[in-house]
Amino acid sequence: MKIGPKSGLALALAAAVGGSFLTPRLDAYFLNILIDVGVNIILAVSLNLINGYAGQFSLGHAGFMAVGAYTAAGLSTLVSANLLARFHGFEHSCWAFGCFLLALLAGGLLAALTGFLVGAPSLRLKGDYLAIVTLGFGEIIRVLLQNFESLGGARGLSGIPPWATFGWVYGWVAIVIFTVLALVHSTSGRGFLAVRDDEIAAQAVGINTTQYKVSAFVIGAFFAGIAGGLYAHSKQFISPEGFGFMKSVEIVVMVILGGMGNTAGVILAAVVLTLLPEVLRPVAAYRMILYSLLLIVMMLTCPRGLFTALGERAKGWLARPKNGGPP
Amino acid sequence: MLKVVNLRAGYGPLQVINGVSLRVQPGEIVALIGANGSGKSTLLKAIAGVIPQTEGRVLLRDQPVAGWTADRLARRGLALVPEGRALFHGMSVLDNLRMGGYPKRLAGARLAERIEALCVRFPALREKLSQRAGELSGGQRQMLAIARALVSEPEILLLDEPSTGLAPLLVAEIFDCIGQLRQAGIAILLAEQNVQGTLRIASRAYVMQTGRIVLNGPAAELLRSEEIQRAYLGK
Asked: How distant is the alpha carbon of residue B194 from its chain centre?
């Protein structure tokens, strides 16, 4: 039986919610890592829409994540601090559920708006220039947050309610994967790939390239904001340092390792690169060196992504016996 | 069909097109010839709305379209085949052709029918439909670029140097195919450096120099006149 994208989404959502019933049995450390993996998948898949499919090199994903994280966390701490005192058991009521959803969406939408404001003027720039603008944007957000005393300033924001459960995180993982795949495989969504391949040719076939680039940016930023909100509500503490340049680079490395415009590869890369630091805890100090080396080796050996290259090789192996060997 | 009056355009502060006027009728091939750097490509891009026009009028079927964006012009039936075979290299040949239906939002049976018609016109493409566009040879790429522009049945086709970098035999083939398009009633504006070949299929020609039209007339006349050939066409 072939599973269509919509039933696939429904299945994945059901699996996420079902999975969250099993999580009380899990070790807290393991569950934490699972949630980190989920948040990173959302970040990597959404950045892949901007960097991979639409071909616009953004280095500011952590900035959008910060906007979402602070918006959602600010709203939910405010609400829960006020309501918790009055309603007994508010934390676990369906009111909390609704509050969290609204807070997350508010974070995502504000991140999307920020994406629009940053993207609309700067997407006329190409390649390196766009990377520099988005890098600058990410740093501006971080420095602003450091100076907002009402949001905790450099000390960070703590006491965020622990609402981001397994089900919430993987529900959103399902939604972002579905959205990105449905988008790029639709007829009009092929416009993203067209813009990436050749901008003049895209214009020549009647594609409004600016509109496509800005919408990739806005949608990507929305999901980065959602990921930020989930992150905040799982860690219960956020500080501007967590959304710095290195976080953006980490997400970019996931996209490059997975293969630009290869959603499955990018998901795999997000999983591997989240688990790797845990496995390599004894040599944690060298983690960034390892990342940099990985990037250099990747760019030299398989610029289209490690998992893209491996995937093609695997396809070749699978196809071989049927065709009676290579010509 | 297409009428351009006193058009000026350029890149930022750099003015490249200094007041060009021309017109193209349905079923007519009009050549735009001139040396490297004379502004042919820039003129085509400005007409197609890929780069902004600073001054002048452009009329498409008597409707003023100056300042329109490229995508709006494409929907109105103006197709540009950009220089250098600008294809979507990562997509298959079939997907490239499908993108060609984008301006008119063609889909389903209507789109399949158009692509089938173009496979009849360009048989070489039919065998390559599932191949990635980046893997085609130079001649096939040019065919694909032209075919993609034709999917949405444009009324005017702007061709930018289709013969560049192709073997003589392929050049003849491309020119043949452009000649056949005229019979379909499409208006064609053809920018070329291959003067002889272009003038043979064109009905009229404009000669460009430093962003201006310095000469125009029936193609046959330009082809005959030795003085003109020497002075402007580098013979």
From this structure: 14
Q: What is the DSSP string of A288-309?
A: HHHHHHHHHHHHHH-TT-HHHH
Chain A: residue nearest B105 by CA? A188
Q: Distance (Å, rounded) from C-alpha A243 to C-alpha B56?
A: 50
Question: Could you tell me whether strands B53-60 and B2-11 are parallel, antiparallel, or unpaired per DSSP bridges?
Answer: antiparallel
Least confident piece of the model among A124-133, A238-247, B222-231: B222-231
- DSSP type of residue B132: B
Sheet with B156-160: strands ordered across: B78-81, B156-160, B187-192, B29-33, B204-209, B212-218
User: CB-based burial of residue A92 (10 Å sphere; 0-12 exposed, 13-18 middle, 19+ buried)?
Assistant: exposed
The number of beta carbons lying within 10 Å of the beta carbon of residue A178 is 17
Helices (H), chain B: 40-48, 70-75, 93-100, 108-121, 123-126, 138-150, 168-183, 195-201, 219-224, 226-232
pLDDT digits (tens, 9 = 90+) for B50-86: 888 888 999 998 899 988 988 889 989 999 999 887 8
Cβ atoms of A225 and A64 within 8 Å: the answer is yes
For residues B46 and B57, give the distance between their C-alpha atoms in angstroms, rounded to a whole number: 11
Touching A: B residues 165-224, CB under 8 Å? none
Q: Closest approach of chain A CAs to the CA of B196, in angstroms? A: 28
B74 to A201: CB separation less than 8 angstroms, yes or no: no
Mean pLDDT to the nearest integer, A26-54: 92
Q: Which two tokens stand for residue B205?
A: 């020609």
DSSP letters spanning A26-87: S-HHHHHHHHHHHHHHHHHHHHIIIIIIS------HHHHHHHHHHHHHHHHHHHHHHHHTTS
Determine the pLDDT at residue A218: 96
**B2-77+154-232: CATH superfamily:** P-loop containing nucleotide triphosphate hydrolases (3.40.50.300)
B71: nearest Cα among A188, A57, A218, A180: A188
What is the rounded distance in angstroms from the CA atom of residue B214 to the CA atom of residue B223? 16
Query: CA–CA separation, A157 vs B12, rounded Å?
Result: 47
Q: Which residues of A touch B91 (CB under 8 A)?
A: 190, 193-194, 197
Residue for token digits 């996931």? A254
Which of A190, A200, A213 to mutate against chain B (most B CBs within 10 Å)? A200
Using the beta-carbon criterion (under 8 Å), do B82 and A200 form an inter-chain contact?
Answer: yes
CB B50 to CB A208 under 8 A? Answer: no
- Using an 8 Å CB-CB cutoff, list chain B residues near A303: none
Does the distance separating the beta carbons of B71 and A208 come in below 8 Å?
yes
Contact yes or no for A201 and B48 at CB 8 A: no
